[in-house]
Amino acid sequence: MKRRFIALAGALLLTACPLTGCGNSDSSSLNMTEDDMPYGATLIKNTEFSVPLQYDRRFIEDALAEKLGHYYHALQENDAEEFSAVLFPLYHDYELETVYEGKYTDADVVKNTHDAMESLHGGEFDFALLDITEMVTKQGVSEDYDALYLMLDQLAEDSGQEPVTKELQAFYELTIDRYFCDKGAGIHGETDSLIEGERLFALKYKDTWYLIYT
After folding, report:
1. Which residues are CB-neighbours of 48 under 8 A, at least 6 positions away?
2. Domain ranges, residue 122
3. Beta-carbon neighbour count of residue 141 at 10 Å?
4. Which residues does 6 contact at the CB level (< 8 Å), separation at least 6?
5. Residue 49: inside a domain, yes or no?
6. How many CB atoms lie within 10 A of CB 86?
7. Where are the beta strands (DSSP E) in the chain?
8. How many C-beta atoms surround the C-beta of residue 147 within 10 A?
């Protein structure tokens, strides 16, 4: 059965409840502004980037959305060069050298990931939509967020560099649902397959956005 995207309608319903008194007669909720609403209250679907993205426009600026588009487009098209271009070099070097012990290149990582998604979809695929469903923006909410945040400074120290957090302007943990369609189908509003809950980290460092996959 085709899955239709209802996240936007659901978010609008949820945000309408405080404004209309759904189950709550507290008049203070009438004073809630858009800026007070949590992530997911003002979702948009944007097809201007390399792949279609759905996100809360208040939290995801165009430069970050563009990097996310390139990241997933690289996995879709099995493009190692596009993939590595959006990653945070300090962490990416650590991952290749220490985590993978130098056994894998970017081309290997991209191909393995691409092939796994192709197998799960059941054939050649495009991303019908990347839905950014959740976002962590501060310490004390996610253990993984906290650990990686601290780790970046340790990696910088080990490399003889200034602390990353000294020039860090934003740091996000994103949860992303990946919707697939058959290659070339051009579907942006429905899909036959879905992989939920991928986590990806994004940081704005010295005015440039980078991504970290784990």
Report:
1. none
2. 42-213
3. 12
4. none
5. yes
6. 22
7. 3-4, 43-46, 53-56, 125-136, 168-182, 190-191, 193-205, 208-213
8. 9
- The span from the CA of 135 to the CA of 145, in Å, is 11
* pTM exceeding the 0.90 threshold for the entire prediction: no
**Domain count across the chain:** 1
Q: Are 90 and 159 in contact (CB under 8 A)?
A: yes
| Beta bridge partner(s), residue 172 | 202
Phi, psi of 71 (to 5 degrees): -60, -50
Which CATH number belongs to the domain containing residue 69 in this structure? 3.10.450
Backbone angles phi, psi at 165, to 5 degrees: -65, -15
pLDDT digits (tens, 9 = 90+) for 58-67: 999 999 999 9
| Percent of the chain whose pLDDT exceeds 70 | 84
Separation between Cα atoms, residue 193 and residue 45, nearest integer Å: 18
**Do residues 149 and 139 touch, judged by C-beta distance below 8 A?**
yes
Measured CA to CA in angstroms, residue 116 lies from 5, 30, 50, 109, 131 at distances of 24, 47, 21, 11, 19
